[in-house]
Amino acid sequence: MTASFPPPSVSHTHEVRLTGAADGLDVVRACIDDHDGLVVDALAGDPTAADTDLVTFRAGSVEHAAAIVAAIGELPGIAVVDHVDVVLARHDGGKLRISSTSAVNDLTDLALVYTPGVARPCMDIFEEPAKAYDLTIKRNAVAVVSDGSAVLGLGDIGPLAAMPVMEGKAILMRDFAGVDAYPICLDERDPDRLVDMIVAMSTGFAGINLEDISAPRCFEVEGKLRQRLDIPVFHDDQHGTAVVVLAALINAVEVVGKTLGPDLRVVVQGIGAAGIAVANLLMAAGVSDVVGVDRDGIVTARRKDARDPIFRRFGKQTNPRDLRGGKAVALDGADVFIGLSAGNTLSVADVATMADDAIVFAMANPTPEIDPAVARQHAAVVATGRSDFPNQINNVLCFPGLFRGLLDVRASAVTDEVKLAAARAIAGIVDPAERGPDMIIPSPLDRRVVPVVAAAVAEAATRSGAAPVEDA
User: Fold this and answer.
1) Per the record's keyword annotation, is Metal-binding included, yes or no (predicted)?
2) Counting CB atoms within 10 angstroms of each CB, which of 93, 117, 156, 323 has the fewest?
3) Using one digit for the tens of pLDDT, what is the confidence trace for 300-331?
4) Distance set, CA 286 to CA 100, 164, 260, 282, 299 (Å)
């Protein structure tokens, strides 16, 4: 086989139901292989469909998958009964539904949960608005809000096409942390109008998770929402990424015998929403020597293209040694490279100029800034954003537990203390005895993460004044 495939989520996975293949699955496998597909599984006598066989394979595109199915159908004595795109099948009808917590079996039930009984909680809330946290879903509700302008890996695809991503975010919150999250995609690009819309619909929510809003608008939207709302607002593309990067770095520096502090030299490549948030949180954690680079070289406030105020502020707050020039200048002797940019933009020669026991986080998806195997020629620890390499830096390690903790204490904001506590909690999941070059971060599916992060976030929110302190 000559094809090379990204993870199943990116490639096209198809299930094909066949007849006449029980004794010829090897022939089907060979056919898929000959057409540069990748066989994932082959099951003779599929128990869900009598007298059929089930073959699962991956292809590089819709057209590639169709060509493979056609080729299988032309094999002597084999007929294709059906074939489905596995990813689309998992999204059929959407990934969410609403379920009730109160049964309505008779007229008494109806009177209790609706009219006339519903008037009592309505009036209680009218007289004391805080009771909405006790008498409605508000206390456990988070809005996952996007305008679809910067969907990861897809770009500006609009609010309607962004819905599957927001549904995915919502089911992760529900499944991992028991949070009732709602996907809300708004057809509005003006930052002020978008803020007004989110504020207007915020009444029934205890938290707002912003998602896939393009920079620099995302900074303005988040900042204005924080000023106008008394519930936590969290842009996961920025701060969720920053929290998990910091968590991974806490353990990575331990592995290589370095310290997370002013002597650690960090290069952040990609100065968008995530890059700026990562740099800010690293500095809040005590890493002062952070240098940002983009396609035009080292970011400084004096660069001719530094017109955006956020870009200029970033240039002033970072680069304490006042480096100037291209990426090579920044990487020379650097301890850490954090890539939040584009695939294949870091060479092995670049990594070779870094300090001994270098740390490389190549997080571009689906193609990292550098192939992890290549990076390991000179780097002691390598992480990516992909699930098929060790050390996956995945935001799902942060946002479910973070919102669980914020909701549990009715927090009003997400402070730096909260984000730092979340990062340290995630890092602490990895047992020191297990920590190593290929184990600096828990698996995204590790169910220990949410309760530990939630507890740390709840404590930090209360301690920092972002949540009310209960009377003893």
Assistant:
1) yes
2) 93
3) 988 877 667 888 899 999 999 999 999 999 99
4) 47, 38, 7, 7, 20
The answer to whether residue 21 scores a pLDDT higher than 70 is no
DSSP state of 355: P
> Tokens representing 58?
């991956």
Q: 114 catalytic, yes or no?
A: yes
Residue 9: which of 387, 266, 318 has the closest Cα? 387
Give the C-alpha separation, 342 to 270, whole Å: 8
Terminal CA-to-CA distance of the chain, rounded, Å?
Answer: 67
CA distances from 20 to 12, 25, 306 (A): 25, 9, 66
Residue 1: the pLDDT is 39
Q: In 10 A of CB 342, how many CB atoms? A: 14
Distance, CA of 376 to CA of 360 (rounded, Å): 9
182 in active site? no
* Contacts for 400 with CB less than 8 Å, ≥ 6 apart: 172, 173, 176, 177, 179, 450, 453
Structural domains of the chain in order of their starting residue, each with its CATH number: 12-91 (3.30.70.1150), 107-231 (3.40.50.10380), 237-472 (3.40.50.720)
What is the mean predicted confidence (pLDDT) over 285-295? 96
Label residue 116 by pLDDT band (50, 70, 90). very high
**Which member of 138, 169, 224, 258 is catalytic?**
169
DSSP state of 318: S
Distance CA 251, CA 435 (A): 7
pLDDT, position 3: 44
Residue count of the chain, please give it.
472
Listed residue (265, 320, 315) closest to 294, CA to CA: 315
Contact present, 344 and 272 (Cβ < 8 Å):
no
